[in-house]
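Handoff note, outgoing to incoming analyst
You'll be picking up this chain. Sequence as last confirmed:
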Amino acid sequence: MTKRLVVVGAGPGATGLLERLIASAPGVLEEPLLITFVDPHPPGAGRVWRADQSPLLLMNSMAEDVTMFPDESVQVEGPLAPGPALHEWAGEAGAPDVEGRSFVSRTVQSGYLTWVFDRVRASAPANVRIEVRRDRAIRVEDGPSGQIVHLASRQRLEADVVVLALGHLDARPTGESARLAAYADAHGLTYVPPAYTADLDLSALKPGQDVLVRGLGLAFVDLVVLLTEGRGGRFENGGYVPSGHEPRIHVGSGRGVPYHAKTGYRLVGPPPPLPRHFGQEQIDALPDGPLEFRRDVWPLIAKEIGWGYYHELFAGHPERTALPWDDFAAAYTDAAWYSAARVDLVASAVPAEEDRLDLDRLDRPFTNTTFADDDAVQVALRTYIEADVARRNDAAHSADLGAFLALLSIYGQLPRVLAQKQLTGRSQVEELDGWWHGFFSFLASGPPGFRLDQLLALSRAGVVRFLGPDVRFDGVDGQFRACSPAVPGETEADALVEARLPRPTIAATADELLRDLLATGQGVEEVVDTVSTGRLRTNRSYQVVDDHGREHPRRFALGWYTSSRGAAAFARPRTNAAPFRMADHAARAVLSALRESVGSATDEC
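Most recent structure output, in case you need it:
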């Protein structure tokens, strides 16, 4: 009897799961298997990476740092089936002007992801059949002989096992966003809540209009591209030539500065051995909990970042150090991060202060800074951005790349902490999902350097104006208002754009299927010591948990919106990346559930 698996979602995360299912199926499941993907968007690329978006929007990772195939570095139970990274595929496919260090358009990435899905699909053994339904799943429920997935087209699919691989989710405005949206409605203003930038309708933002923008991350970079080049402006000779269709963008955030640019060089020395201070041994040694992220986990993470940074400094630039590496490494290993011993060691071994890693200064570069006036803010921010771009393109500072590699290793280890230890609810929401995720993105997930050069040109042309750090946004006297405690004065506008994705929030999700799960008690928000994390509760095998605490044996959920938190769908090669490990674990759990199921006799009803 044929076993039937329905996967809701067909983007990169679902493709990664499919790759692991096909790799592991021969050793786990003997019966024939039909896998049905349900997604209104193209399989492989999904919504975020679909081809029909502006060709001006780029990936923020270099092509050589993007792969969908686990390699020999990945620690998985299922067999490996290596494949090409993005730049290797592009070379084979004849895509023009794609090199390893290229930042390709999202339409090129869409082509890669579509090809990966097709290749994986074609590699399926004879007893595994794969089909795609271009439809939207709106409800899932238990049926007499398995589960029933209801589609927007009013069709129904029977399944033995269902996997929800929904990717990025939209959300209805809540909290401050809901308050600002209501204020905009009451006063005839324009408010754009958090959302995926490529899907925004920006037509309400008129030429020459003053627009407040909250956020200086990747969503802001996309927003600026669409409002400038996307409206006919062009960059020439280091400057910007306006089209006259641009609004005037006034942007601020907590840090007040954009994400750091991607590095434009390679390591000078050998790669740092990672993990070293934040691996399985150190995680096992943590107390069983409940833990606080900043108090208990961050000191290990900070030490790992320092290890990657100083390994490259000593290996690549020994003339700027005063101790042999082996001596420094031994003393560094013995010293706690928050200790005088570590501070004294670095001071004695690294003579130049500018060569010492200062994570607090990196995190909040304008702490305790005040500006005399608006002009001083613009000069300070341009100087900061110019220095960042210069540093990220100067191999003399390759220690920053060592820190970046350590950050990637840390990101891959964090799922072990969540699986093996317990963080308090407050710490999960405020410190892990809040501060840490923002800090990681700020240092490691920034745009290519030329995007910051373009931002500088827009600033000099008067199209973009920086508001400073710790900016507060509110509605006052019928207008939106922004102000920074570090800058005199206020800025008013009749439009406000949230340049960020919505936080995970199952209670306020716009996804009809998840809303139904919550309404019927088949799913529940994760709550840790009375604090809701906003995520769909799943167990360590990715099974959905209902409002009575019962784990559904044949219903799974994967992604950032779940309590398992998921990871990016694709990863940097040769880094034992978490997405592959998580997909392998999930695939084997799904195959085991299929093996134990009764099996379905029909396809539709």
